[in-house]
Design brief:
Helix content is 37%, strand content 20%. It is of the alpha+beta class. The strands form six sheets. Strands 12, 13, 14, 16, 17 and 19 form a six-stranded antiparallel beta sheet that branches. A five-stranded mixed beta sheet has the order 2-11-10-3-9. A hairpin with a 4-residue loop joins strand 12 (317-330) and strand 13. The structure holds 2-(butylsulfanyl)adenosine. The site of 2-(butylsulfanyl)adenosine has 15 residues, from strand 3, strand 8 and strand 11.
Length: 670
Amino acid sequence: MSAIEAKKEIQELVDQINHYNELYYQKNKSEISDYEFDQLLKKLDDLENEFPELKQPDSPTQRVGGTITKEFENVVHQYPMLSLGNTYSKEELEEFDVRVAKGLEGEPYDYFCELKFDGVSISLVYENGILIKAITRGDGVRGDNVIANAKTIRSLPLKIKLEPIPSRFEVRGEVFLSKEVFKKLNQEQEDIGEETYANARNTASGTLKMQDSAEVAKRKLDCYLYYLLGEELNVSSHEEAIQKIEQWGFNVSPTYQKCKNIQEVMDYIVHWEKKRGELPLETDGVVIKVNSLDQQQRLGATAKVPRWAISFKYKAESTSTRLNGITYQVGRTGAVTPVAELEPVQLAGTTVKRASLHNANEITRLDLRIGDSVFVEKGGEIIPKVTGVDLTQRKDTTASVVYISECPECGTPLIRKEGEANHYCPNDSGCPPQIKGRIEHFIQRKAMDIDSLGEQTIKQLFDLGLVNSPADLYDLKKEDLLRLEKVKDKSAENMLAGIEASKSTRFQSVLFAIGIRFVGKTVAEKLAYYFKSMDKLAAASVEELLKAPEVGEKIAQSVVQFFNQPHHVNEIARLKKAGLQMESTSVEPELISQRLEGKSFVISGTFENYERDQLKEMVLANGGRILSGVSAKLDYLLAGENMGPAKLEKARKLGVTLITIGDFEKMLIG
Ligand code: IVH
């Protein structure tokens, strides 16, 4: 291809991709499948590699990353990034209001309230409409330019189209991992037997500082914007600035509200204190800003914080209790997790008796002693955390914690690999929780989905010596099952039917079920699609594996090591003989009907009988489309339990039809 032809082709691809991206992120519509979209990106990427001089500065290929930044450029903020004063009570907030009133010498004023998003602040610099820098807060004066990583945030415009735009401006906001994405990330960690991340904020912060932007792209960061800075912006209030950045295509949380006085601000605070749990991301308070920019300027700032804005922090739900001891749990992969055994205490409506301590480093960091009075907090996560020790209560009688050196379940000496935080029990073939854990992993819904068996049944089957590995499940006879407690004819038949039905489970799920280290659900899907069969995967070399999507050195090595072990090969041969699916069949979900043709859906909340992914597949299989968010173009919002109030409000405002799961089921029957 000549350079002229390449230039034309590149331009066409850029336009096409930008068009689909814009449709998706700004109009919540998708006209092509993810697969087709990825193919377009790949084509563009190949051309850009062949003709590097033709690569455009705002090319959409930057969304998928690929840039390695050894050291981030340290840059000075044109406008320092101030922090905010904090208040914790109505009284302190009223004092702020008095200071504002005094500063404005009796002039009338409005407030603009937003939620305080718990993420990592970022300043995005645009020149001639193009995103050129993304600077972290740093010390407020200088920060790191993490532009390659920021560009992977799909909802962030790389180029502003709407004219006229100021030649230079900055938009500031908060980069975060949504609760859903964070949960999935931790689910993946759990699936592969790795340690889970403690909280979304720190994980978002760590992600933004990763050197490989392709890794960042996989993490699915998002960003809410709340501040516009620059010259000749042509806006006179914060409200107008927010509207402007919304029009330019930035992601603004719809939770903001203009308030006429401090009482309305209080109402806003009380409203969101109850509702914030339902939002897509963690929030730890409210930010209250004087709306008029002229008034903001006159109120000015101290050295560190503006006088025209303040934050109201919601109280973290926390208490203190006695640390009675530490126990140790051994997981499926042999990883040992220490658990704090606490004197039972009431916290946020539940009794807390235990809290995870993650690993030995955490115990050292907290300098825990048995008998200490410890602070326990419940953040966004369901599992409570030990956040510190009340040293004023420490008695001489407290004893230091000596971390165990042998497996509490099988007595094998524990090992700790260089650079890893966890201790491991290496006895994978003889340590009971590891064996039971592997079978529980195998039968879970996301794997073989044998719901007629459960944790208790597995425990009994193992204790009776009937099942030692997943393949043993397929040799079970009715008389074996009748030996289990409370199991009669009917339930034994049920269990056998469940085991039998699992033989038709798709290959990708089988691949996940066998529990190769670092192969979670997503990686298993990609491997199944790429290699098509267990035999081909088992025969693949590290080099061949590295060519598959999402596969890095760690996964490739782990797969090769797995298939090098004779007991794994033997187990897989038995599973194959039992009749499990060892080859991929179709790739795209088959179209079952056209009943939902032309109809678009957003699925929100939780459902008793369905996983959200399952519902999405049902929409697609019946010819419908899934949109990423609520907009005027949306036909149906399928509403489950605990749906976010912001989404509901938006849907009502836009007149989108709300349907229940019952309505949806009726639509499918026709
Ligand atoms: S405005 C000069 N608005 O809170 C005022 N900040 O404690 C600039 N934050 O560094 C900040 N949500 O990272 C503002 N709606 C919001 C915010 C927000 C979260 C963060 C931001 C800031 C920190 C100050």
